[in-house]
Design a protein that fits this description.
This protein is mostly beta strands and 278 residues long. The chain is 14% helix and 41% strand. It has two domains: 2-82 and 254-277, Sandwich (Immunoglobulin-like); 93-252, C8orf32 fold (Roll), CATH 3.10.620. The strands form three sheets. Strands 1, 2, 3, 4, 5, 13 and 14 form a seven-stranded antiparallel beta sheet that branches. It has a five-stranded antiparallel beta sheet with strand order 11-10-9-8-12, with helices on one face. It has a two-stranded parallel sheet with strand order 6-7. A hairpin with a 5-residue loop joins β3 and β4.
Length: 278
């Protein structure tokens, strides 16, 4: 799929703000199944941006708006080509053992993915060494999709994983955090993916950044691949999923964050468009 993404983030302040420092994680990644053909960043008030690569391999843009402003508008345009990933062969849970030390970051609890009895919450058994890892992940992906209700606005940045599990309603970030929690409880290396999804095929999660999970699947040659699972939609990652980057949880991949002086209580609006091109 060849797609053009337009992402607009706008902050409105009741009083002028100044000295606004911001970080953006909005540039789509280059991967084995995704090519970034173009990326443009527009900032209003106009200011220069610098970029660097963070610990997890994401491109981060930083900028500083010095002059007073009542509105901050950030617009990005990107063009990508994506391909569906081939499905790995069935593999036993025991084959993960030699790989765990290399993926410590994706096995330990994090701020938004704490320890807990999450597997039992979903009424799933613990994985045994002779179990099929891929089949377990497919069942987990479907169990979360069927057991919870997707409702934009039902949860916010302050919602905990326990809150989501208790109310059974949330958004894609909550679904991804729950799948991460179960995977890490079962000692499966798993990472949070931030990106976009094309709204076709009745997928939910378009209109803003989307979130899903990648799990490490070992291969017979001693290597392995990261395979994407989208528990919000109950599907594996497809060519309609566009990756921005990865982290331990949402905190590592927040699309835009920063600090400012003054301004008062802000109002935020976000608009995302993913258009498929011929």
């Amino acid at each position: 799929m060849r797609a053009q993404i337009k992402h607009i983030t706008t902050y409105h302040y009741p009083q002028p703000a100044s000295d606004s420092f911001n970080e953006l994680r909005l540039q789509p990644a280059q991967t084995a199944t995704q090519s970034l053909l173009g990326f443009q960043l527009y900032i209003d008030p106009d200011t220069a941006a610098t970029s660097h690569t963070d610990y997890f391999g994401m491109t981060v843009h930083s900028f500083h708006v010095r002059k007073p402003h009542s509105t901050l508008r950030v617009e990005t345009h990107a063009v990508v080509v994506t391909h569906a990933a081939p499905l790995p062969l069935p593999v036993l849970m025991s084959s993960l053992e030699p790989h765990r030390a290399a993926f410590y970051d994706y096995l330990e609890p994090s701020e938004r993915v704490p320890r807990g009895n999450w597997t039992a919450t979903l009424e799933l058994p613990d994985l045994r060494n002779d179990d099929d890892l891929l089949e377990y992940l497919r069942v987990l992906n479907t169990r979360i999709r069927m057991g919870f209700t997707y409702a934009p606005g039902a949860t916010g940045v302050g919602t905990t994983l326990a809150d989501f599990v208790a109310q059974r309603t949330g958004v894609c970030q909550d679904y991804a955090h729950l799948m991460l929690a179960v995977c890490r409880e079962q000692r499966i290396p798993a990472r949070y993916v931030s990106g976009y999804i094309y709204a076709g095929h009745e997928f939910v999660g378009a209109g803003a950044t989307h979130a899903w999970v990648e799990c490490f699947i070992p291969s017979e040659d001693g290597g392995g691949v990261w395979l994407g699972f989208d528990p919000t939609n109950g599907v594996l990652q497809t060519e309609y999923h566009i990756i921005i980057g990865w982290g331990r949880d949402y905190n590592d991949v927040t699309p835009m964050k920063g600090s400012r002086r003054g301004g008062g209580a802000e109002t935020l609006t976000v608009a995302v468009s993913v258009q498929v091109q011929q």
